Amino acid sequence: MNNFIFTFLSLFLIWSALSYPLTNQEIIFGLILSLFISILTQYYNQRSKSFKIKSLYHLIKYFIVFLIELVKANFNMARIVITPSLPISPKIYEVKTELKSNIAKALLANSITLTPGTISVDLEDDTIYIHVVEGTKVDDVEGLKGPFEKILKEAFE
């Protein structure tokens, strides 16, 4: 029930913020839409754990770490592009993940893709195939997951 209420309130607050200034019609439609999506989410996610503040803390921590990694990767890609010899050596690596949750795996793969210089090519079971622009400079294949996997594991498991 906590997940349902949290989902409903979150969706309605986001709807209200995006639809501001609100009319009565928009409030009613937002309430109906938020309720409908919350019911669907509850139906498809019956085995979910209840919402925990600890998970929210880890997701905020993940977002901050992601932004830091994003900035570092952007500077690295800028250095590569500015270098006249364009020092690239593309390679694809196979990396195993310890994450069990499908959402956590998807977030990990998207985090890798969103940081410049790497792209998650495929995600199969517990394996992510990652394309790296500077493949010869990769010393630790497990390091391609960055700090993301540890934080996502704390948040979702």
TrEMBL record:
It is a multi-pass membrane protein. Pfam families: MNHE. The keyword Mitochondrion does not apply. GO terms for molecular function: antiporter activity; monoatomic cation transmembrane transporter activity. This is Multicomponent Na+:H+ antiporter subunit E. The chain crosses the membrane at residues 29-44. GO terms for cellular component: plasma membrane. It comes from the Bacteria. Keywords: Antiport, Cell membrane, Membrane, Transmembrane, Transmembrane helix, Transport. Belongs to the CPA3 antiporters (TC 2.A.63) subunit E family. It is found in: Cell membrane. Its main location: membrane. InterPro entries: Cation_antiport_E. It comes from Caloramator proteoclasticus DSM 10124.
